[in-house]
Amino acid sequence: MQDEIVARLANQLGTELTSAEAHRAERASNPDSMDLFFQGLASLNKGINLENMVQARGYFERAVTVDPDNLDALLGVARVDYSVGAAYLSDDRDARLAAAEAEMAKVLSLRPNNALAHEIMGGILIETKRVGQGIAEFERALALDPNLAAAHGAIGLAKIFVGRPEETGAHESEALRLSPRDSFAWLWLHFAGAAKMNLGAEEEAVALFRRSIENNRTNPLTHFFLAATLANLGKVEESRAEAKAGLALDPGFSIGRFRSGGQAGEFLIEGMRKAGVPEG
User: What does the alpha-carbon distance between residue 225 and residue 217 come to, in Å, rounded to a whole number?
Assistant: First the structure.
């Protein structure tokens, strides 16, 4: 029990310290590499939309320029590229994921025991249809840091990809238990909702997607998933409102872009279509 309490405090403290360091760095007249890194991390923590990702990547790139040995900043660049690809925020998804993989390979060659690096690499692998390898990376991350909530959450997504969505909820619950106020708690709720949707429990999926949006309203993909689920329930007016909210955050999103990932079920595609998401 004591270890669990310490883990939860550490996760929450990490988010708060990042925010505090970023605010301090904003006031620096001549920011150093770590000042820029913390500003990038703060932008990343705001939510996964294109505006936040462009801002975060800019800070991380500047941090690497100031100090090429700042592997935390390079890891940040990779996290952004991976996030943009995984969230379908641009039409160059494959290129973004390939860039992220190259960046992470460099970090891991220098820091083979970095838990975060293994977690990010795992995410890249599952998004590029190497799910077994991805799960192995998440497990490696957890062996290095059993309290890495993001790795627990990501395993839940991987279970959807391998056709075992009934196992996802336990992983997302573990992530939320370890870090209930995490800046990425919305993402774990999104994964839990996606699992329920895959299981045909659409009303439960709607509730989880709504909780995800309440946690962080800046992430377009959750709006699109909620729109599709509502449309499949026959709640077309509500679904179109959610699709509109998603498109306000990501005007370039389309069914064609989403289909390019090759891991979306037709029920999700059809729901997006009913909700009025552009074909692309």
Answer: 13
**Does residue 272 sit within a domain?**
no
Q: Model confidence over 157-185: pLDDT tens digits?
A: 999 999 999 999 999 999 999 999 899 99
The residue with tokens 């988010």 is 15
Examine residue 3 and state whether it is found in any structural domain, yes or no. Answer: yes
Helices 220-232 and 266-275: crossing angle in degrees, nearest 10, is 90
Q: Does residue 87 contact residue 221 with C-beta atoms inside 8 Å? A: yes
> Total domain count for the chain?
1
DSSP structure class, residue 233: T
Residue 243 lies in a domain: no
DSSP E strand stretches across 120-191: none
- Domain carrying residue 99: 1-112
Both tokens assigned to 211 = 């909780």
* CB proximity list for 207: less than 8 A, separation 6 or greater: 193
Q: Does residue 66 sit within a domain?
A: yes
pTM for the structure as a whole:
0.88
Q: What CA–CA distance (Å, rounded) separates 274 from 231?
A: 6
